[in-house]
Structures are given as structure tokens and as C-alpha cells.
Amino acid sequence: MATDGSPSADRPGRYAGGIVRRASRLGWLRVVLLHPVIARPGFWFATACGWAWGAVLGRFRLRRAGRLVVASGLPKWAYGQGGTTIGAVYLTTDNAGPSVLEHEAVHAAQWKKYGLAFIPLYLDAGQDARHNRFEIEAGLAKGGYGR
Ligand SMILES: [Zn+2]
Fold first, then answer.
1. Tens digits of residue pLDDT in 73-120
2. 31 C-alpha vs ligand 1 centroid, how far in Å?
3. Which key words are in the record (predicted)?
């Protein structure tokens, strides 16, 4: 996932960050939200949403690539930058080379670990991919950042 990095684009990130910071003060809430019993259904829900979005907008051009489902042929407005992973579904037009898929598979694993909490956690990690811990973990070069 990625955005353009402009200052106004970071507003949702700061808002989400506030929520995450307040929640993380309540350690028990973090434990509950990130527990697999809560996180896993969130991952499934995100995957179902990504699948539906990719299937409809990509006219059912879905294929498996390891643990990822790749939905290609989507219009460019239907995802961020070169592609976006929602749950286990990678949405793109045609940006699906091997290194990109490796990068997106890490995002799918992050979705699986954090469930729906991945959304505010990702936004809180910052809009600049070079400093976003989830993008760094997925591999900046593989994701097409920093070239
Ligand atoms: Zn990424």
C-alpha cells in the first residue's frame, strides 16, 4: 500500500495514529484486538472485501500466486499506486512481477497477523513508505520504492 506522501494525505494517518496511541495506552485492548481469535476473522473479512472488489472490477481475472490471490485488470482508480493488498488479495492492473508479489505477500501476512487493526496501524506508521515499518518489512525495493 502506498500514497503520494503529500502533507494533506497524512491527515488520516494522524487521526488513525491518535486512535492507535489511545488504544495502545490500554494494553489489554491491544492484546484483545491483536489476538488471533479477533484478528483472523478481520483478515477473512478483509480478504472477502478484496476478493469482491477485485472480482467485480477486474471482471473475475483472479489467480493464485502462493498465498496471495492476484486480481488484475482493475482500473487504476480502484487501488493505490501500482497495487494494493486487502487481506490476501492483491489488486492491480498489471503490476504483478515476482518481486512485487513477494512484497505484497508480506502485506498479506501483516493483514493476517493484525486483522482489521492493520488499517489504523498502517496509517499510523506514516504515509512515507521509506519510514513506514510495514513497507520496510515488506521490502522497499521489491515494492518499487526508492528507485
Ligand atoms: Zn507495500
1. 999 999 998 999 999 999 999 999 999 999 999 999 999 999 999 999
2. 25
3. Membrane, Transmembrane, Transmembrane helix
